[in-house]
Design brief:
- This protein is α/β, with parallel strands linked by helices.
- It contains four helices and nine strands, in the order ββααβαββββαββ.
- The longest helix is centred in the N-terminal third of the chain and has 14 residues, at 29-42.
- The mean pLDDT is 97.
- Bound molecules: adenosine monophosphate.
């Protein structure tokens, strides 16, 4: 059970946030296998060409999944980290805005992308990631998360793209 490997940390990184800590999942061979195998089963691998992960925990799951399925990996990063030409997308946070970036040549036109992150909360991050992938010519075919906060309307933000989560809380 994935749930048994997730640690709840109250008031991190600020008061009122119940942080879902995935490090117990990662440090367990059983937990890590549950997560990566679960993602490999959640979306038929023949329906996508590349895995795209969002910094930073999306890198951990996305890269492991890509390697397991013999696919490539594309990182979406925080501003100023990618060295080549980038496309950027900003999105609203509770207070202020955030920005993510992708390399403009991260995929060939029409490539089918599986979008991966550790957790779906408000959906703002993934919504911006979908826009970025489309802007560079990629085609997001599904989003996959380890955890979904089901009490937030994250799914609704992602439109027609199917959403899969291994654990809904
Ligand atoms: P959102 O854009 O609101 O869907 O937030 C998703 C991003 O924020 C993911 O990259 C998560 O890693 C992180 N995040 C948001 N809420 C939490 C939480 N309660 N516990 C852990 N990570 C979170």
């Amino acid at each position: 059970m994935i749930e048994s490997f997730i640690r709840d940390v109250p008031d991190f990184p600020k008061p009122g946030i119940l942080f879902k800590d995935i490090t117990p999942l990662l440090q367990s061979a059983e937990g890590l296998a549950l997560a990566i195998d679960g993602m490999a089963k959640a979306v038929d691998p023949s329906t996508y060409d590349i895995v795209c992960g969002i910094e930073s925990r999306g890198f951990i799951f996305g890269t492991a999944l890509a390697r397991q399925l013999n696919k490539g990996f594309v990182p979406i990063r925080k501003p100023g980290k990618l060295p080549w030409k980038t496309a950027a997308e900003s999105y609203e946070l509770e207070y202020g805005t955030d920005t993510i970036e992708i390399h403009v040549d991260a995929c060939d036109k029409g490539k089918r992308m599986l979008m991966v992150d550790d957790l779906l909360a408000t959906g703002g991050t993934m919504e911006a990631a979908l826009k970025l992938v489309r802007r560079i010519g990629g085609q997001p075919v599904a989003c996959c998360f380890v955890i979904e906060l089901g009490f937030l309307p994250g799914r609704a933000k992602l439109g027609q793209v199917p959403v899969h989560s291994l654990l809904k809380v």
